[in-house]
Each structure stands twice: as structure tokens, then as C-alpha cells.
Specification:
The structure is a homodimer. Chain A is α/β, with parallel strands linked by helices and about 425 residues long. The first copy, chain A, is about 35% helix and about 25% strand. Chain A has three domains: about 170 residues, 3-Layer(aba) Sandwich (Rossmann fold); about 160 residues, Dihydrodipicolinate Reductase, domain 2 (2-Layer Sandwich); about 80 residues, ACT domain (Alpha-Beta Plaits, 2-Layer Sandwich), CATH 3.30.70.260. The first copy, chain A, is built from 14 helices and 17 strands. In chain A, helix 4 links the parallel strand 4 and strand 5. The longest helix of chain A has 18 residues. Chain A is elongated. The interface between A and B is large, with 65 and 65 residues.
């Protein structure tokens, strides 16, 4: 059989990695795929690669010219961002070309449009590398667990946030300090907003939720909260209570609707997900038949991400001759079978909470706080008694609550923080038992 | 489209689970697969199911008659064992029927013959449920990581052994005691040989090694060693040295050949695999591009195993119209591309070792032991100094060595245990750093 010809858009970190994987493992890949896979064309704004790697690649200045090349079988989009990636992918589809992409923002924001176009033209758009880098999580949720009603998915799917929280715990350092180190090490961007504010994780979670529950991609409905407000004392308190704080991407189907949320979360220290440290990623899936499965691995990096890109290329190469109607559907469910299950606003989500308040060290404050909680129907599951620092007139009040609806907690907290003897806005984190 | 008709061989634990999953999640499965999947025929030696579950199933006394039914699209073999499973599967294939099986012994022992027949008749034999129950590990190794040279795979893939070792560690109990409890709880069979001697894990490892390295299935070349000789003091010593003892199924490709071995192993306590406890399974894979990925979940049980069986059914249903030459190859590599890479005899495998010897408590014994090790070129990485129990004339000598070839270790150990002041055969366990 003639080799599969790849047109590569972008030769940055992941693009360069993809070229490297296809070249280094060419023999092994051909033994699996049953044919050679070669990069025949590439397009890149800036070129930082060794010329020998590109010796047999036709370089094109205009990426739109690349997607129109008749010899290209599969277009691999590794530019990132939505412009011009969306337009390039749609044009590739309209030319009848299959597409492989690692672009989570593109899929989370424009996936519905892109998959509809792919459906219309009978091509596949593969995106394993868009979620959790080298971990084959799309394949696991979409195919491996296809017999299950997925009940919920909990992921640590942003390496930067997880690195920061791990360092805060292991070294007792504060957020700003560790963020600077992460930037120096290259684990965090110069502008870390996407990572530490939860936007990157929300892109990935949006995709996982669609695959799990058979709903359209709805990124704008995802609740996000960053890790910037977490103090070393919260990390310590969590440990004393038997928990760890992780930036959790969590989606769950309840009778009221689907929860879709990314926020710092206390999870039990003894669960496997709590042991996922540093820049590593992991996704824990609860299915009604299988129970819990977890997938763990590197969520970023040139070669791990390229591992998933190339796996997709091999898979697409196999489907070139298949009947489009019998392929695995892009979003796991048949296009006509997506459900209009509503997404639950955050105010209607029910979770347990960790609260840390700063109170004046005088009689009656605790009684006032607990009375407000009791009146709101919020019961306390655990409490940390702490001595005030010597010479301080303030004491921290730390407690875990039983599950309660967010709007009730908000109302109670508003009353509590308006008490004259409560010194600040406090810290409120959600708690998930993951059982 | 008309429903896919399943012929179910066996209605025991997994067969009953498969029927339950297909019935309970029928709507969700049809939304994913694009068509209904129904069990049209079934055959079972003994029937312990609720009659309503079988209301629309044609029961057949003769399983050979079932595999010949023209209406059956996919034969699902859940009888277990090789006789008559092998004959039934081969006859189904010869009738042009696709097969799904959870039968690890059948695949490990007769997979080469079965896949050759499937190739000849253009059908698929799917076996996700044969390894690690509900964990989609076959799919991950065969497809998700297809861009990698797999370097090694380390698995905890026998729940019974892992339950026993976990209880020994957590409760300080001894092997026989915990085994009895496991039998009472139903985690171990009345005859536990297959589980505790490593045979079950060896079946699964044989399959994983073939998928990882592109070699034929070679069960008879797998080295196995049971967990029966492990004492509570070994579990304790391992912990003091920073390790945990796990029944590890390990396969690695080296320049000398492929290692294929199941034996109790010390692994670093801080690696994620060491935290896999109780009856849970996990598989850690080292690929040259992705680095390390781990998959974790339930390795047995009716519904988790059925989750994988039904995922295979959905996948096979999708491939009914595909060109047989463009399907994922049974053993990950194209049938003509399997390599004759030799398997390494255990004597030529190089690992680090944990040694526990019982010595007379008198001067010169340690010098004699360490001299023999030094003469064999074996260097000591760590040593536990232990006081003799009061009134005892014997002391335990516990040490970790640096890596050495097994035959050198065997020769040195033979010399050591023939020393007059060494009281017994000692315990020798292998150590893997998994880095």
C-alpha cells in the first residue's frame, strides 16, 4: 500500500514532537498500521527544527494551501488557539480530508460545528491529544467504557496547577512563590491565567463531559475557579482533616442536571487520585457497571502529546476505507442521539464544604457562627480547634460541613462574614468524597 | 438498522453479568452503537438466572448448535477454560462469525491458532475482558499507545494475590490465614493454585507482552513464582527499606531478549503502583515517547468484566462492514510483522534482590556472606541490622543488592546457604525500581 501522507500544520512543541515520533518509530508504526506514515507537507510560521528532519517534507508558506493539497490524506492541526485553526480545520474537512488535532480550545469552543461538518463530509476529526496529553483517555471513555452509564468523572488535568499545589503541600510554600518557580522551570506560561484560573482544565472537562453523557459541547456553561486564593494553612488544615487540595475538574450527572465545574477541591488523602503529584495528570471515572477506573500519565510535553497525535493518525489511517456511518462517533454517541440534559448552575450544585474564617478571640463568636449554619440547615462534619498565635486577638475557625446546596452556603456565608467579630471574607473550598 | 444478535456461550458470573449489562443499559448502548444489541441465543450447562432475563432469549442445549445459528452475528464465549471453548471458538470463526471472549487461558494458550483462523475467515476475535477485567488495557496498549516502542509493562493483575499481600501488610497476618479469609469472602477459589502461584497473572502477562512487543503468544516461556513463601517479616522489612511487596507481572524488552515473569517483587513504596491495594488491578506501561502511563480499576467481578465484554461487542458491531485488512490487528502488529525476538530464560534476567538469611549469632558469619557476594561481583545496596530475639542464637540477615544476573545470584546463594552458620534456604525476592 502507498504511504499515508500527513500535512502538518505547526512545527512548534507538539508539531516538532509529532514529526520526531513519526520518524523515530517509523518501522514500529508501519508494523502496526500496515503501511508507512510520512509527513509529506508542513507549514509553520517560525522554523526552529534541524534541516535534516525536514529533508523530505515539502514546506508551504500558506497553511490554507497545505489543506488543499490533493496528496495530503490527513491534516494534523497543531497550531493551537482558534484563529486560524478553526478555519483551517473546516477547510480541510470541506476538502474531504481527515483531521487530527491536539487543540482543546478549538474542540471545546467549536467542536459542535466541526463535528457537524465532518459528519456532512464523511471524514473523521480525531482529538485524543486534546485531553490529558499522552493518556488515552478519549479512547477509554468513548470506547473502552461504552457499556456504562458514566456517573461522574474527576480529573487532575492541568499539570501547572497540580505542580503548584504539590509544591505548596510538600514544601509549605505559598502560591506566588511556587508559581514563579513553575514559570522558571517552564511548567507555567509567562501569562499563567489559562492554567491557574482553570480555563485550560475547563476546555478538557467540557470535552470529557460531552463524551461521557452524550451532550453537546458547552464550554460557556463550565464553572471555573482558580487556585490563587489557597493559603499554605489551607493545605495544612486539609492534611490534618485527612484530605488533600487538588485543582479538580469534575462533571457529574444528577437527576437535576449535569454539573460541570473546575475548582480547588478537598479529596480524601487515601484515594489514588490524591497521590497524583507534580505535573502528572489523572482521570478517575465512575461507571455504573465497571465501578471506578483511573488513568494516569503525562498530561503535556512534546513527546507524550505527540504519542496521542500519532495514535490518532494510525487510527484514522485504518478508517480510510471504512463506511463513515460505522465509525466511532466523534462525541461517543451517534450525532442524532445527543441529549438536551440541562447543565446545573453552580448555585444549585450540592457539595460538602471546607470553611476557614478568621474570628475575634472572644466568647460567643463560635456560637454565632454555628447558629447561622444550623439555621441554614448546614451541619458540621468536623472542626479544627486552633490556638491563636501568641499575641494575636484573632483565631482561625476551620470546619468541614456535610453536603449542602451552594446557594444555601452562599447565603449562610454572607450572614457569617457580616458578623462584627468575623474579620475577613474567609476561604470556602468544596469537598468531594469520590466514592 | 436491524439489531445485532448475540449468541451467548455460558451464563455463569460473567455471562450473567453480560446479559445484565446489555439489558440494563440497552438504551445508552444503542445511542452509542447506532443500533440495538440483543442476546438472541444462549447456551449454559446450569441455569441460575431469573426467567424474565431470558424471556426473549432462545436457549440451546448444544453450544455447537448455537455457534452454527445463521441469525447469530457475534458469538460471546464466557465458558472459560480451553475445552470445549477452543473448539467452539474455532467453529464460530469457521462459520464466519465474530467472537468476543473473556477467556485469558484460551487466548494465552491457543491465541496464535485462533487469530490465524480469524485472519483466514476475515473475522474479529475481541478479548478486552481477558486482561484486568473492567480496565480497557488491551485497547490502551494496542491502540492508545500505538506510536510507542513499549519498553516494559508492570502489572498487578491478580486480585486474589493483591488482596492477600495487602492484608498481610495492613494487618501483619500470615499468608495461610489471609488466604482462608479470601476463600471465605469469595476472593479466592477453593483451589487457589492458579491465583497464588501466578498462573492466572501469567496468562494475562503473556497477552500483554505479545501486544506490546509484536511477538507471538508464548505462555509456556513465562516464568512464574507464587507468593506462598512470603512471611510477615518480609513485608515488614520491605516497608523499612522503603518498598512494598506486590505480586508483579513484568515484561521488558532488552537487547538480550524479552523478559516475561510473574513473581513477588519489591517495588518503591512511593510509586503509584505500590498504592494499588486489595482486589484492585493496575497496569503501568513505559513507552519511549509517552513515558509512564498507568491504568487502574477492578480486575474481576461480574459487572466490571461484562463492561469490557460489552465494549468489545459494540466495537465488533461497528466493524461488521469494514474491510478486514484495515481493522486493528488482533495482536497490535500486522500478522506478517510479528518478530521472533527471543524470550530470555530467567537465569539470564538481571534484577536487584532482597535477601533474608537466618544466621548463627556469632562473629564472622556476616563476613563470610559478604565475601561470597563480593567474589560473585554482587554489591550490597542496603542492609537491615536486626537484634536477635531474646534467647535466640539466630539472627536474620536482610539486605538489598544492586542488579545482578539471576544465575550469578543463584550460584552465590548456593554457596551462602551451604555455609555451616547459615540456618536455612533463606528468602530471595526480586526488586524493581520501575523508573
Amino acid at each position: 500500500m502507498r504511504p499515508i501522507h500527513i500535512g502538518l500544520l505547526g512545527l512548534g512543541t507538539v508539531g516538532g514532537g509529532t514529526l520526531a515520533v513519526l520518524q523515530r518509530n517509523a518501522v514500529e508504526i508501519a508494523r502496526r498500521a500496515g503501511r508507512e506514515i510520512v509527513v509529506s507537507h508542513a507549514s509553520s510560521r517560525s522554523l526552529r527544527m534541524a534541516p535534516e528532519a525536514l529533508a523530505r517534507v515539502a514546506m508551504m508558506d500558506d497553511p490554507f494551501q497545505l489543506v488543499a493539497q490533493p496528496e495530503v490524506d490527513i491534516v494534523v492541526e497543531l497550531i493551537g488557539g482558534c484563529t486560524p485553526a478553526r478555519e483551517l480545520v473546516l477547510q480541510a474537512i470541506a476538502q474531504g480530508k481527515h483531521v487530527v488535532t491536539a487543540n482543546k480550545a478549538l474542540i471545546a469552543l467549536h467542536g459542535n460545528e466541526i463535528f457537524a461538518a465532518a459528519q456532512q463530509y464523511g471524514v473523521t476529526v480525531a482529538f485524543e491529544a486534546a485531553v490529558a496529553g499522552g493518556i488515552p483517555i478519549i479512547k477509554a471513555v468513548r470506547e473502552g467504557l461504552a457499556a456504562n452509564h458514566i456517573e461522574w468523572i474527576a480529573g487532575i488535568i492541568n499539570g501547572t496547577s497540580n505542580f503548584i499545589l504539590t509544591e505548596m503541600r510538600d514544601q509549605g510554600r505559598d502560591f506566588t512563590d511556587v508559581l514563579q518557580e513553575a514559570q522558571t522551570l517552564g511548567y507555567a506560561e509567562a501569562d499563567p491565567t489559562f492554567d491557574v484560573e482553570g480555563v485550560d482544565a475547563a476546555h478538557k472537562l467540557t470535552i470529557l463531559a460531552a463524551l461521557a453523557f452524550g451532550i453537546p459541547l458547552q464550554f460557556s456553561a463550565c464553572y471555573t475557579e482558580g487556585i490563587g486564593q489557597i493559603q499554605p494553612q489551607d493545605v495544612e488544615n486539609a492534611a490534618r482533616l485527612g484530605y488533600r487540595i487538588k485543582q479538580l475538574a469534575f462533571t457529574r450527572k444528577t437527576e437535576q442536571g449535569i454539573e460541570l465545574r473546575v475548582h480547588p477541591t478537598l479529596i480524601p488523602a487515601k484515594c489514588l487520585l490524591a497521590s497524583v503529584d507534580g505535573v502528572m495528570n489523572a482521570v478517575l471515572i465512575q461507571g455504573d457497571m465497571v465501578g471506578q477506573t483511573l488513568l494516569y500519565g503525562p498530561g503535556a510535553g512534546a513527546l507524550p502529546t505527540a504519542s496521542s497525535v500519532v495514535a490518532d493518525i494510525i487510527e484514522v489511517a485504518r478508517t480510510l476505507t471504512t463506511d463513515p456511518h460505522n465509525r466511532v462517533p466523534h462525541l461517543a454517541f451517534q450525532p442524532g442521539e445527543l441529549a438536551a440534559t440541562p447543565l446545573l448552575p453552580m448555585t444549585e450544585v450540592t457539595t460538602a464544604y471546607y470553611l476557614r474564617l478568621t474570628a475575634q478571640n472572644k466568647p460567643g463568636v463560635l456560637a454565632a457562627v454555628t447558629t447561622i449554619l444550623a439555621e441554614a440547615g448546614i451541619s458540621i462534619a468536623a472542626m479544627l480547634q486552633q490556638q491563636p498565635e501568641s499575641g494575636s486577638y484573632q483565631v482561625p475557625l476551620v470546619m468541614l460541613t456535610h453536603p449542602v446546596q451552594e446557594q444555601q452556603m452562599n447565603a449562610a456565608l454572607a450572614r457569617i462574614t457580616s458578623l462584627p467579630d468575623i474579620a475577613d471574607e474567609g476561604v470556602r473550598l468544596r469537598v468531594e468524597s469520590l466514592d
